[in-house]
Amino acid sequence: DYVFPEFWASWCGPCLASIPQLKKIYAEYSDKLEIVSISLDTKRASWSNVLETQNMPWPQVSDFKGFDSKIAKSLKIKKLPTGLLLDKQGVVINMGGTTMLKFFMQSKYSK
Predict the structure, then answer these.
(1) CA 69 to CA 94: how far, in whole Å?
(2) Largest separation between any pair of C-alpha atoms in the chain
(3) Are residues 41 and 48 in contact, defined by beta-carbon separation less than 8 angstroms?
(4) Which H or E element spans position 95?
(5) Cis (ω within 30 of 0) for the bond into 20?
Protein backbone atom coordinates (compact mmCIF):
# COMPACT_ATOMS: atom_id res chain seq x y z
CA ASP A 1 0.00 0.00 0.00
CA TYR A 2 2.85 2.39 0.90
CA VAL A 3 6.58 2.78 0.40
CA PHE A 4 8.84 4.66 2.82
CA PRO A 5 12.20 5.58 1.24
CA GLU A 6 14.32 6.54 4.20
CA PHE A 7 17.55 8.51 3.73
CA TRP A 8 20.18 7.82 6.35
CA ALA A 9 23.93 7.29 6.91
CA SER A 10 26.07 5.20 9.23
CA TRP A 11 27.63 8.33 10.79
CA CYS A 12 24.22 9.87 11.62
CA GLY A 13 23.37 9.36 15.30
CA PRO A 14 19.64 10.16 14.94
CA CYS A 15 19.49 7.75 11.98
CA LEU A 16 20.95 4.91 14.03
CA ALA A 17 18.67 5.76 16.95
CA SER A 18 15.60 5.46 14.68
CA ILE A 19 16.40 1.90 13.51
CA PRO A 20 14.69 0.11 16.44
CA GLN A 21 11.48 2.09 15.85
CA LEU A 22 11.62 1.36 12.11
CA LYS A 23 11.99 -2.34 12.91
CA LYS A 24 8.87 -2.23 15.11
CA ILE A 25 6.86 -0.41 12.46
CA TYR A 26 8.04 -2.82 9.78
CA ALA A 27 7.25 -5.86 11.91
CA GLU A 28 3.70 -4.65 12.44
CA TYR A 29 2.92 -3.33 8.96
CA SER A 30 5.22 -5.18 6.54
CA ASP A 31 2.18 -6.48 4.65
CA LYS A 32 1.12 -2.88 3.93
CA LEU A 33 4.43 -1.01 3.97
CA GLU A 34 7.78 -1.40 2.26
CA ILE A 35 10.73 0.48 3.69
CA VAL A 36 13.72 1.17 1.45
CA SER A 37 16.79 2.58 3.18
CA ILE A 38 18.89 4.81 0.97
CA SER A 39 22.27 5.41 2.55
CA LEU A 40 24.11 8.65 1.91
CA ASP A 41 27.33 7.11 3.14
CA THR A 42 30.54 7.66 1.20
CA LYS A 43 32.43 4.72 2.74
CA ARG A 44 31.26 1.20 1.91
CA ALA A 45 32.92 -0.31 5.00
CA SER A 46 31.04 1.96 7.41
CA TRP A 47 27.73 1.23 5.69
CA SER A 48 28.39 -2.53 5.61
CA ASN A 49 29.27 -2.57 9.29
CA VAL A 50 25.94 -1.01 10.27
CA LEU A 51 24.05 -3.40 8.00
CA GLU A 52 25.75 -6.37 9.66
CA THR A 53 25.07 -5.17 13.20
CA GLN A 54 21.54 -3.80 12.77
CA ASN A 55 19.92 -6.59 10.71
CA MET A 56 17.38 -4.38 8.98
CA PRO A 57 15.01 -6.71 7.08
CA TRP A 58 14.11 -4.30 4.26
CA PRO A 59 16.06 -3.34 1.10
CA GLN A 60 19.24 -1.28 1.52
CA VAL A 61 20.90 0.73 -1.25
CA SER A 62 23.76 3.20 -1.61
CA ASP A 63 25.87 4.60 -4.42
CA PHE A 64 28.44 5.93 -1.90
CA LYS A 65 28.24 9.47 -3.25
CA GLY A 66 26.71 10.93 -0.09
CA PHE A 67 24.69 14.09 -0.59
CA ASP A 68 26.06 14.24 -4.14
CA SER A 69 24.08 11.14 -5.12
CA LYS A 70 21.64 11.71 -7.96
CA ILE A 71 18.57 10.81 -5.88
CA ALA A 72 19.57 13.01 -2.93
CA LYS A 73 20.15 15.95 -5.25
CA SER A 74 16.95 15.42 -7.24
CA LEU A 75 14.84 15.21 -4.06
CA LYS A 76 16.81 18.03 -2.38
CA ILE A 77 17.69 15.91 0.66
CA LYS A 78 19.66 18.21 2.96
CA LYS A 79 19.40 16.53 6.37
CA LEU A 80 19.29 13.06 7.83
CA PRO A 81 17.28 11.11 8.62
CA THR A 82 14.63 12.04 6.07
CA GLY A 83 11.76 9.83 5.01
CA LEU A 84 9.16 10.16 2.29
CA LEU A 85 5.86 8.34 2.42
CA LEU A 86 4.67 7.32 -1.04
CA ASP A 87 1.31 5.91 -2.05
CA LYS A 88 0.74 3.16 -4.64
CA GLN A 89 1.09 5.66 -7.47
CA GLY A 90 4.44 6.93 -6.16
CA VAL A 91 3.02 10.24 -5.01
CA VAL A 92 4.65 11.75 -1.92
CA ILE A 93 1.88 12.02 0.65
CA ASN A 94 4.01 12.91 3.66
CA MET A 95 7.58 13.67 4.65
CA GLY A 96 9.16 13.01 8.02
CA GLY A 97 10.68 10.42 10.25
CA THR A 98 9.66 7.37 12.21
CA THR A 99 7.17 9.22 14.43
CA MET A 100 5.24 10.47 11.41
CA LEU A 101 5.35 7.01 9.85
CA LYS A 102 4.16 5.31 13.04
CA PHE A 103 1.20 7.68 13.52
CA PHE A 104 0.25 7.52 9.85
CA MET A 105 0.20 3.72 9.80
CA GLN A 106 -1.70 3.59 13.09
CA SER A 107 -4.30 6.01 11.77
CA LYS A 108 -4.82 3.93 8.63
CA TYR A 109 -4.69 0.48 10.17
CA SER A 110 -5.51 0.79 13.86
CA LYS A 111 -6.97 -2.38 15.33
Answers:
(1) 22
(2) 42
(3) no
(4) strand 92-96
(5) no
Which pLDDT does position 23 carry in this prediction? 98
Identify the DSSP state of 80: S
Rounded distance between C-alpha atoms, residue 75 and residue 38, angstroms: 12
pTM above 0.70, yes or no: yes
Length of the chain: 111
Nearest to 5 by CA among 68, 62, 43: 62
**10: β partners:** none
Q: Pick from 25, 35, 80, 29: which is nearest to 58 by CA?
A: 35
Sequence-separated (6 or more) residues with CB below 8 Å from residue 100: 83, 85, 94
* 75-89: average pLDDT: 96
